[in-house]
Amino acid sequence: MAVKVSVVGAKGRMGSHVVEAVQGAQDMQLALTLDAGDDLTTITPSNTDVVVEFTVPSVSLNNVLALIAQGVDVVVGTTGWTADKLAQVTAALENAPRENQQVFIAPNFAISAVLADHFAKVAAPYFESAEVIELHHPTKVDAPSGTAIHTAQGIADARRAAGLGAMPDATETDGGSRGQVIDGVHVHAIRLRGLNAHEEVLFGNAGEQLTIRADSFDRISFMPGVLLAVRKLAAGGHSGLTVGLDKFLDL
Q: How many domains does the chain have?
């Protein structure tokens, strides 16, 4: 039986691609397409198996909480998720109307970006220094990107597990020109016309450098990851909140 998929943010840059991807998937059926101002309560377990939410950070949390209250599983591609917002989603799922309800949030759906993030965690314990550069189109509303934040946090976790201390940095500045510091890792955001979504992770030791880079040249690159997440939630077994497509890639 085909998975019934509704899309919230269906008229947006990403949402429109999701609609096309669902329509092109033989094992899925497009249910409802909603956008700003539409009533989310029209989405119910009777007409929808999984919702894909691709909107903007300012409304995504409320959308997800409303969809949880409707008793449906949700795949979220909107970025800008903080620890506090994630905690609110977890709390809502604990009181969800349906048992074993599922929400999946991905900092990035591009397989290349997910693998780059994984490789960065593997490399982090072996280098004295690490920095992250993310490059996006100038219409992106958040900076740094959710992907870059997730990468920096993963690097920091791997360094702590390896017993490494703070990275060397003798720069005498208030931090304004050294990027945002996330868990001890400097992250730099570039917004440039002509770019889509790109991330570069730089690792350095005395006399050597490792560069890990992922490039998404078109939004269609995110669609295999979106469909994978929809299929995983439709199959069940991931109750509660799951963050990161790496959880579904057996890395």
A: 2
